[in-house]
Amino acid sequence: MSREEVFERLNKVFQDIFDDDSIVVNEETTSADIEDWDSLEHINLVVAIEQEFNMKFNMNEVTTMKNVGEMVSIILSRIN
Amino acid sequence: MKELEYPFNVEEIMKHKKQIRKELLLKENLIEKNIAILGGSTTSEIKNMLEIFLLNYGIKPKFYESEYNQYYEDAMFGNEELDSFNPDIIYIHTTNRNIMNYPTLYDDEKTVKKLLDTEYKKFEKMWNNLFGKFNATIIQNNFEYPYYRLLGNKDASDIHGKVNFITRLNQKFYDYANEHKNFFINDINYVSSCYGLDKWANQFYWHMYKYAMEVPAIPYLSFNIANIIKSIYGKNKKAFVLDLDNTLWGGIVGDDGVENLDIGPEVPNGQVYSEFQNYLKDHKSLGVILNVNSKNEYENAIAGLNHPSGTLRPDDFIIIKANWNPKNINIKDISEELNLGADSFVFVDDNPAERKIVQTYVEGIATPEIDVPENYIQIIDRNRYFEVTNFSEEDLKKNELYKDNAKRSQMMATFDNYDDYLKSLKMKAEITSFKPIYLERISQLSNKSNQFNLTTKRYSLADIEEVNEDDSYIKLYGKLEDIFGDNGVISVVIGKIKEEDELHIDLWIMSCRVLKRNMEFAMMDKLVEKAKERGIKTIYGYYYPTFKNKMVKDFYQTQGFEEISCDDDGNKIYQFKIDENYKNKNNVIEVNE
Hints:
The structure holds 2 protein chains of 2 kinds.
Chain A: H1 3-17, H2 39-53, H3 59-64, H4 68-79
Helix pairs in contact in A: 1-2, 1-4
Chain B: H1 10-15, H2 17-24, E1 31-39, H3 44-56, E2 59-65, H4 71-77, H5 80-85, E3 89-93, H6 109-133, E4 137-141, H7 154-157, H8 162-179, E5 183-186, H9 188-195, H10 197-200, H11 203-209, H12 218-232, E6 239-242, H13 253-256, H14 268-282, E7 289-295, H15 298-305, E8 319-323, H16 327-338, E9 345-348, H17 352-361, H18 376-382, H19 393-412, H20 418-424, E10 427-433, H21 439-448, H22 461-469, E11 473-482, E12 485-498, E13 502-510, H23 519-533, E14 538-543, H24 555-558, E15 562-566, E16 572-577, E17 589-592
Parallel strand pairs in B: 1-2, 1-3, 3-4, 4-5, 6-7, 6-9, 7-8, 10-17, 13-14
Antiparallel strand pairs in B: 10-11, 11-12, 12-13, 14-16, 15-16
Helix pairs in contact in B: 2-3, 3-12, 6-8, 21-22
């Protein structure tokens, strides 16, 4: 799967979780950019992404991820 | 909503919860309840999921959620927000993470007992305190097993083991539950074992977010809580409507012949169907009504049900529809004959096409997605259609009651004059003020009655207890028996006395199984008598229309009330001035106190 494809599928997950079709995520996107993205929604987001890509983040990854770009890199390293 | 029935797709529910919620909020006739969640760990997602499952059951929750791990402080010392919230339900979400002190290997039995007592007393105090403060129902988690065992298998039997300690603590919780009617255990020990303890206890979620179980397990937890709550508010299903061929036995009785059906101990497939028949039959003692809806010649259906290895007999069913009608039409007929809404039915059929038709044409009916026979029980059971909370004596006898009704209909056919028929039933009623032994049944009736219900006001057991103790209410129950049997408590009237001489009727309900027996007039006579004793001059009646209670829209007129107001929604207020020479309206039922 290419980086672009991951972004595309990831974007759909974000739209579902925040119930907002206008969301477009990019490499630099962080929780500050999406209004409803608080720590509680973050959990749901992580669970939904894990289910979408059939992979698991470990604790260290979740605590150190800085933006969506890093999230995509972890997903890519896990599924390819 | 199909998505919210077991087996559910957790991924879809979690991802689309916001849309699901929006859609469910459009439902009509939602009843509103205040639910306080007192958590010993994070509860945010538990609350979100609980809301969805409750909305699906027609209950619209308003939540109070304690701050993180403040369950004890909130319960013991309270706070203004919780006090003014005045919860109907208090859900205490504690888990083994909230057990403060486990035994160590150095402790003797006396010390372990003391530890056990200390842990338990903390909870007991909390529950008693909450009961003292709120007129609410408490739902309390038991404890799930720990995710590791220091002593291995000995952890279960040795007094120093965590598994042993948790088991003993749970038992103490159950003892309390058995002594308190408004207290229910949310069995997370069972739910976590069904889910798989290793997955349930995924420690990632505890250390990251202080969730005491993994987040994808939460829908199962919340579904379990929602089932207790919907049962408390009378939203359980009431009847099974069962297909026959390949549902109650293997094979097609019309084609294969009775002797070739798979049922009984000889072959694996036969064993499966035997167990399923036993499972269904056991529901009779819960007061669940069994019916048949099958595309078959009637004789063949009966022959199949008389199979020597079967446990269900034709006699176990109230209504047997074995014909070639579309199944949704049969269901409509069954609903009318039983006088029960079809939305209280569980339709079990192995054929997905039949389920689909029924699902499409019968609103609110459950059509569990059973797949292979060996999974039938599990799929039906996990849906908790008949969750037991307040189990009453009435339930044990329910099937007999419906049978008696069927006999009455037959007898009616032999009379020309309806009054003669009623007199021939030799009816005797007991109508008087609430008695403690009936409070549970009264609450149950207030939650189950939809059609003969003037205000559709629901009373939990705690609410009824409050009414019972308050002198400013006139509260009557009515029991009715006749030559065919005892119907038990079937009618309730609650009126509030205001301004010394006014009585305002908050609730007037009657079970549909005694319709057209003039019981409502006997209730009115007694109400007037009791009102007079209290110096009441005027009785006010209220009718709030729902789409189920059209049957009683002219009820107060029939009783001689006068309409005094009607708003745009059709809510009406009536008044009845008590005449000194009030004449009793009932002359077919002998009434005693």
